[in-house]
Write a structure and sequence with these properties.
The chain is an alpha/beta fold. Helices cover 37% and strands 23% of the residues. Strands 1, 2, 3, 4, 5, 6, 7, 8 and 9 form a 9-stranded mixed β-sheet that branches. A hairpin with a 2-residue loop joins strand 6 and strand 7. The longest helix is centred in the C-terminal third of the chain and has 16 residues. The protein starts with a strand and ends with a helix.
């Protein structure tokens, strides 16, 4: 397989339907056809697999016991075989029809890079991409889950479970830090390639002043605790 697109979801059927509709318009299917596989992992919500059949794209549908997004991504990864892997959130729509084609192209032009990522929109908010800098990444995450990764680099972390299922937050940050620790680097596409439509995480939506004003709140304390767990894991504290 050229490309594996892995989509975990839990109950958000409408968003998933919109995501798949957006996905069918991607030019990678015109270029590589059945060499692109879409793996949908129902994380215990009990959907009907007949809803996700398509004559345009190759969809494989799996049901698992509800265990959270990292476990669902790992399950999808185990079922995949693509040279390139794209972990796609179910509430996402693509802003450009050649988004995935662009990502594959930049990795093929830069064989020394482990993954590529882009600017994106989260609801109404724009997140312009930050040029890859390993030292900045060690301080805070600026790379989304929605990035294209070479399978070989994921397998350097783990042959079957590159996502840390024990983490409640910052799983994407953990993944990028693990790749960096193995010598990998990312590369930025500055274009806005996709948009998410969920409410998202507190860290994605709220301005930094929120954390200064409400630092004593339970939500902010929990956020800081989870961040500390990842930093200790990667010996950044």
């Amino acid at each position: 397989m050229k490309l594996s697109i892995i989509i975990p979801f839990y109950r958000n059927f409408k968003n998933l339907s919109n995501c798949l509709a957006s996905l069918t318009k991607q030019t990678v299917f015109d270029l590589w056809g059945r060499e692109v596989e879409v793996i949908v992992v129902d994380d215990g919500s009990g959907g009907n697999e007949n809803v996700f059949q398509s004559s345009i794209i190759n969809i494989q549908y799996f049901k698992t016991v509800h265990s959270g997004a990292p476990a669902a991504r790992n399950f999808g990864f185990q079922k995949s075989s693509g040279e390139y892997v794209f972990f796609c959130d179910a509430d996402v729509v693509f802003l450009k029809t050649d988004a995935l084609e662009k990502m594959i192209k930049i990795l093929e032009e830069n064989p020394n890079k482990a993954f590529c990522y882009s600017s994106f929109k989260f609801g109404w908010k724009k997140f312009p991409g930050v040029k890859f800098d390993a030292e900045k990444l060690k301080q805070n995450n600026y790379i989304s889950t929605m990035s294209l990764v070479r399978r070989a680099w994921l397998e350097k972390i783990s042959t079957d479970k590159p996502w840390d299922e024990s983490l409640k937050k910052f799983q994407d940050w953990d993944l990028w830090l693990s790749i960096v620790e193995n010598g990998g680097e990312g590369i930025l596409i500055s274009d806005y390639l996709w948009q998410a439509h969920s409410h998202g995480t507190m860290s994605a939506w709220l301005p930094s002043i929120f954390y200064k004003i409400f630092r004593s709140s339970n939500k902010v304390k929990k956020y800081e605790e989870e961040k500390t767990i990842v930093m200790k894991k990667h010996k950044l504290l």
